[in-house]
Specification:
Mean pLDDT: 89
Number of strands: 40
Structural class: mainly beta
Low-confidence stretches: 1-19
CATH topology of one domain: Immunoglobulin-like
Strand content: over 45%
Length: about 725
């Protein structure tokens, strides 16, 4: 009998894990499923359900206190999964309205982790809450959920006296798999419910100490003769805009435009996907949240949300951010090839980026930027091979600037080794070559060739009593990755964490004490930071958690010729899910010494941030968030009061008119204030930026939607930059053929 290497090694490594699998039943032509969530067709009764579930939260390593049943069916086009969750207090089920990809831990939901390769490295995830709201994406144990990708699937839910149930109908065309593989698919099912506690219950014996949740998935036995997966779709998008731009002291500018773009997807087989886009529209329907950035030296990472770049996004994910498709700022054409086999993945993406983009140029003490005055072609390629508990990969990127303005190229290997279910090792080595340098005007121009490297290694291990991790980084000062995200280079660092787990103490479910440490130097051996930081974390009822962290002996340098500051500070925070109306609250605080980056001076200050998820009405969600930083003057420069403060506020509210229709309003405000007497250079006393957005959305299905929206942006730096108001009224139609 033929047994795949990955199954054999996984069995040897994780032989202590229960191997009760899922039994799939093939539907006959006369058998049909009515997707109503009720699982009342006779064929569901013929399937042996999987009922062995384990608690991971609030208590680890015990059988689930409520019964959950999972059944699997399939035919020549669809995979059907039925999940039934029994509940002794079904009137307490949290069945909130939610937008797609916005299901949260304060709700009752089911999640399917489907891994067609059984490699235990990544899985497609399909969520549904008790109201029928959905969320989907890619999951990996090293980076968690990425809910940006959207897949075509249907699911219905139903309530009954004693619980709720869900029926999934997932097209095989939405799942990437190798039709010819003899390795059974793997499935892990999560049931989440939040009451006086948050309960996480898995279909495998997942523990909080594990670094490999997917290692506890079970095979789906009985699926055979799956379809080839060949299919295609075309998605035209039509966008109309009317813009107004008002700058104080200048004439008002108005303009109107309309654009047609096309996305094309073709799957010749179940394992291969070809994507193409022409004149894509990447209008931001969902605004990026404002972030505090006034007292930082380095670039801030922004998550990819644009549909074309999301196919196979998990393949591009490596220990280092060697590929970040947000660096492709304004493409006018793009092509992508993605292949997923039982033992390997491969993807290559190429896109033409129009002129005018900013190029990140990292340094040791700050992130610089250059202007690309010409178009460029960005190409990213990644291959990953699964060898049982280990995966070996390689990555290559190329950015070729037009008109002979140079190139940037990066390549190197990486590995992930799941030594056992609680121990993980990862590493990556990248080499770069660049002759696209900065000229005297800050523009990209052809220059001398520079080379560099970026190396990374980490190791983690844990059990019920302790946890520990170590990571090492070595980035040369000439390393550059124009297709990736690296905000700092020219340093070496070692980070470590040790945690002692005390388990339950009275009403507290979990008590952990930990020590974090960092040692970081620049390429010349100068200390950048030395940190030794003890702390404690606890978890309790209502999915509550709290932490206290003390950093009495931090050393930090922010300027190559500047002082190595001694810093003392402490931080604390808490979070909880009190109930249906106040679904989630969280707050984080820190006080102590703070380095004023612009002045290269130490001051007293701190920061705090607060957020909440509120549901005052059944159909209304309100999500406010607020964050602030501040630094007080110390009198040595004539400033006795507050030298610097920055705030960022967002209020995101969503009204659900129906499961497919929503009205979303976002109010954002960001402000920075500085005391000019506290600085030896000229600074702006005040600057502000506000954004208001109102969008109506009708989402018929994946790829088919109508948007009608209005956005107003106002920015001002009195005495430096005149007040500017920009407004846009837009309509967007997207339909999938």
């Amino acid at each position: 009998m033929k047994v795949s290497l990955s199954i054999l090694v996984s069995t040897l490594l994780f032989s202590g894990v229960a191997q009760a699998g899922f039994q799939a039943h093939q539907l006959q032509k006369k058998e049909a499923i009515k997707l109503d969530g009720k699982l009342d067709e006779a064929v569901w009764k013929q399937v042996t359900p999987h009922t062995e579930f384990f608690q991971t939260q609030p208590f680890d390593g015990v059988a689930a206190h409520l019964r959950t049943e999972v059944r699997v069916l399939y035919d020549d086009k669809f995979l059907y999964v039925g999940v039934t969750g029994f509940d002794n207090e079904s009137n307490q089920i949290r069945d909130s309205f939610a937008r797609r990809d916005k299901i949260s831990i304060d709700q009752d939901f089911f999640t399917l982790y489907i891994d067609p390769s059984s490699g235990h490295k990544a899985a497609q995830v399909f969520y549904v809450n008790a109201r029928g709201a959905v969320m989907d994406g890619i999951y990996s144990d090293t980076s968690g959920d990425d809910t940006a990708p959207d897949y075509e699937f249907s699911v219905s839910t139903a309530r009954f006296d004693g619980g709720w149930s869900a029926e999934y109908k997932i097209p095989f065309s939405s799942i990437a798999y190798d039709k010819h593989s003899t390795t059974p698919w793997s499935l892990l099912v999560l049931r989440n419910m939040t009451r006086d506690q948050r309960y996480r219950m898995y279909s495998g014996a997942v523990t909080r100490a594990t670094s490999c949740n997917l290692c506890f998935s079970h095979p789906i036995e009985g699926m055979q003769d799956l379809p080839s997966g060949m299919n295609w779709n075309v998605t035209p998008q039509l966008v109309g805009r009317r813009n107004k731009d008002q700058t104080e002291g200048k004439p008002t500018l108005s303009s109107s435009s309309s654009d047609l773009s096309v996305d094309f997807k073709f799957r010749p087989t179940s394992a291969i996907t070809l994507d193409a886009t022409l004149n894509p529209d990447f209008s931001q329907i969902e605004l990026d949240s404002p972030q505090l950035s006034g007292n930082t030296r380095f670039g801030i990472f922004v998550q990819e949300k644009r549909p074309f770049f999301l196919e196979g996004a998990d393949i591009f994910r490596t220990p280092l951010n060697a590929i970040s498709t947000r660096t492709i700022a304004n493409p006018d054409v793009g092509l992508r090839y993605t292949q997923r086999d039982a033992d390997k993945d491969f993807s290559i993406l190429t896109s033409r980026d129009t002129a005018g983009a900013l190029v990140m140029v990292p340094h040791t003490y700050y992130t610089g930027y250059a202007n690309s005055t010409v178009a460029s072609t960005a190409t990213d390629a990644r291959a990953n091979f699964r060898l049982g508990s280990m995966s070996l990969g390689a990555i290559a990127t190329d950015r070729q600037y037009a008109d002979g303005q140079g190139y940037n190229r990066v390549a190197g290997p990486d590995f992930v080794w799941q030594v056992d279910k609680n121990q993980l090792m990862r590493g990556q080595l990248l080499m770069s070559s660049t002759n696209a340098q900065l000229d005297s005007k800050g523009n990209i121009a052809r220059g001398d060739v520079t080379t560099g490297h970026a190396a990374y290694f980490d190791w983690s291990r844990g059990n019920d009593d302790y946890g520990m991790s170590v990571s090492v980084r070595d980035f040369s000062k000439d390393f550059r990755a124009d297709n990736g995200f690296f905000s700092q280079v020219g340093f070496r660092s070692v980070n470590s964490d040790i945690t002692k787990k005390f388990g339950r103490m009275g009403e507290l479910h979990e008590v952990n004490a930990y020590v974090s440490a960092e040692y970081k130097v620049d390429s010349d051996g100068n200390i950048l930071s030395k940190i030794l930081s003890p702390g404690v974390r606890v978890a309790g009822p209502y999915d509550s958690s709290a932490y206290l962290n003390i950093s009495p002996t931090v050393r930090s340098r922010v300027n190559q010729q500047g002082e190595l500051f001694s810093i003392g500070r402490f931080a604390w925070g808490l979070a909880a899910s009190p109930g249906k109306q106040v679904a989630r609250i969280s707050a984080d605080f820190s006080v102590g010494d703070v380095i004023d980056i612009l002045a290269n001076r130490l001051g007293r200050g701190g920061s705090y941030s607060m957020s909440a998820k509120l549901r005052p009405l059944d159909r209304l969600e309100v999500e406010p968030s607020f964050a602030t930083n501040w630094i007080n003057g110390r009198g040595d420069s004539g400033s006795q009061g507050r030298a610097y403060s920055e705030t960022a506020l967002q209020i995101n509210s969503i009204l659900h008119l129906s499961p497919k229709d929503t009205i979303r309003m976002i109010l954002q405000d960001a402000r920075t204030k500085r005391d000019p007497q506290a600085y030896t250079i000229v600074v702006a006393p005040d600057s502000s930026r506000s954004v208001n957005s109102l969008v109506y959305t009708h989402r018929a299905s994946v790829g088919s939607a109508v948007y009608l929206g209005w956005t107003m942006t106002k920015s001002e730096t009195p005495g430096f930059v005149a007040q500017r108001k920009q407004s846009e009224l837009f309509t967007k139609f997207s339909w999938q053929i």
